[in-house]
Amino acid sequence: MEALATGHLFALTGAVLVGLGLFGFITLRHALRQLLAVNVSGAGVFLMLGGLGRGAATTDPFPQALVITGIVVAVALTAFGAALTLRQAEEDHAAKEDDERGGKT
Amino acid sequence: MSLVFDLVLCLMILGTAAASLLMRSALGGIVFFIAFGNLLGIAWLSLGAVNVALAEIAIGAGVTGILLILAHARLSAMGDPVECEPTSPWMRAAVAVICGGLIVLLSVAVLSISPTDRMGAQIATLMPALGIENPVTGVLLAFRAYDTLLETFVLLGALVAVWAIAPPRGWPQRPASLAIATPVSLTVIGTFSRVLLPASLVMAAYLVWTGSDLPGGAFQGGTVLAGGILVAALGGAIALPRADDMRLRSVLVLGPAMFLGIGLGGIALGRFLSYPVGLEKALIVAIEYALALSIGATLALLVAGKPVPPAAVQEGGD
What we know:
The complex is a heterodimer.
Chain A: H1 2-27, H2 31-52, H3 61-104
Helix pairs in contact in A: 1-2, 2-3
Chain B: H1 2-22, H2 26-46, H3 50-77, H4 89-112, H5 118-126, H6 135-143, H7 145-164, H8 183-210, H9 218-234, H10 246-268, H11 280-304, H12 310-317
Helix pairs in contact in B: 1-2, 2-3, 3-9, 3-11, 6-7, 7-10, 7-11, 8-9, 8-11, 9-11, 10-11
């Protein structure tokens, strides 16, 4: 009974994290913070998987392996997202400097 | 007793998640996110999933945290204060209602499923054939090897994608230097990292080896290696390699290529990704060591970012 309650507790926490992350993703208007929000949502999905795999004594190794795969894919996404954000900022920065130089001459 | 602990833990997880999203300061939000990742690791421990706890703390909190902090620092250096334009209260309220509805729906769905580790018993009956004892490694490297193979290519693909957006003048140079600008800190971290890097190598090798029977594995070991490399780069003890360095490229490709090669070899035995009888453990451990090396190098370079023109490297280092 207690194992059931533990599993549900973590799965419910995961459900709230998914909603919280989505809220952040929509309301935060900066790509870097949206990236963080996606990670919060992702962590929520992982926790739902893990919580629902909680048995009487152990947690099902199958969802555990899926979550490890998920964590690695999430960091790959975050790295590419951060690189794109930086590249865009560089373009904007260079365009602004060009404008300023153009204004002076 | 443990239920009370779990309850407090879940509240702390939700609190740190909310703080990481709602804080005005972006850097503060990232710091809360790292705390959130570590608390999640404890949640996985509480669920008895030590393999996931290691991965979550090392990758979810550690690597993702340093990635976000570094991106924040580089954006700030370019004059982007990483501030969010305020959204209207009405919009926030509407979004809150929608997300609240989603939470209710998900909660109803979650409560309609009874937690079970049914698959665990099935996996346990298949494990003796592999000669290893950690069921999570069994699932990752044997029963669902397809997923793991593709995942390693996703990681490699992410690095290719990051490199692909390098400015034309930057290709194929080194990524911007990670070395700390303050001379005193540089000396301290540099000295520390000369001790830490070999230790992280030993730790990574141990985690991969022990991952056959106890919690650990290629991803956890690879991340420890990446951590050692990154600290050494922060301390200026090592320079990051050029993107066209063939030794680097072989290390990056070694793990996925070896996994794919052994998988293709399985076709000769009848099925893609099947291991010859009697050699299961030897092949799994060999794949894991190659993977850990590739994952370590790939993660470290993903954090370092795309190659930049040499002038920018010096700017970053000064």
